[in-house]
Amino acid sequence: MAGHGAGMSGTGPPSEPPCDYAGPFAVERDRLTELLAGLQAADWERPSPCPGWTVLGLCCHLVGDDLGLLARNRDGFLGTRAPAGSEAEFAAWLDELQAEWVRAARRLSPRLVTDLLRWAGPQITVTFAGEDVRARTASVSWAGPDLVPAWLGQARELSEYWIHRQQVLQALGRPSDLRADLAGPVLDALRWAYPYRLASAAARPGDTVSISVTGPLARTWHLVAAETGWQFGDQPGPRRVGSLAMNAEQAWRLLTNNMPAAGQAALTVSGDDAITSILLRTRAIIGASKWASGEL
Fold first, then answer.
1. Distances in Å between the alpha carbon of 55 and those of 47, 121, 169, 184?
2. Segment 51-77 mean pLDDT
3. Pairing, β 219-226 against β 229-233
4. Threshold 0.90, pTM exceeds
5. Which domains does the chain have, with CATH numbers?
6. What are the beta bridge partners of residue 225?
7. R_g over Cα of the chain
8. Please, which pLDDT band fits residue 229 given cuts at 50, 70 and 90?
9. pLDDT for 171-195, tens place per residue?
10. Is there a smaller number of Cβ atoms within 10 Å at the N or the C end of the chain?
11. Which helix (H) or strand (E) holds 197?
12. Under 8 Å CB-to-CB from 86, ≥6 apart: which residues?
């Protein structure tokens, strides 16, 4: 059968968006600026989970993300074009680009950084609202090499900002913000890394991988192998070849490389070794793990 032995290629995310991402982005930006407005001087100098970056450095990175997003999506300007090459080469290029920006932004004060984030947020919201979210114009490398609907590009951006806010909370010694209005759309976006990575596994149509998320945010995802690739289904197929169970905190951390290897021992995983290995290695980010040492 198609896909048996050599892996399967997927059909990609549907054109119809699961939600409007402009609204959740506006909420995310409000929560970020509210958090930053309450920080004391010493808080900005706390080390973040991103090695080498303080809370201020991490927020400078977000300013760079804002300006780059507006340049690309609003203005159609690509000042720094990604190199043609492997995924690893792209990740290395992106890492250096981001590090260069944070080094250049080290002269910015916390007040300036907060003001810039507050200034850019509404413009990004307007930009998102004006895009044709069904058009396959976005590149989301962790979801596959092909262009995907613009809504997944917006979801990817929302996810990055949400994840970085969780990292700021962690640096401050505060718990993650798992309110469903934002954590839900984020997890529903990150899940699109699974079909792409599972494509490398041998499978027969009907094979099923089930992933369950519990806690303050509950999700159950069934990935069913078909002739065209792995697809999300409402019901499992006739053969379950792998399963993964985790809570919402574990889910976002695993999918974004914010979980140390030891943390995977607390996950419940079963099934074919090749499949479960992919489930534990799947990431909805670019590049290798960069989490800082210590308890996460």
1. 6, 19, 9, 25
2. 97
3. antiparallel
4. yes
5. 22-190 (1.20.120.450), 193-281 (3.30.1050.10)
6. 230
7. 19
8. very high
9. 999 999 999 999 999 999 999 999 9
10. N
11. helix 193-198
12. none
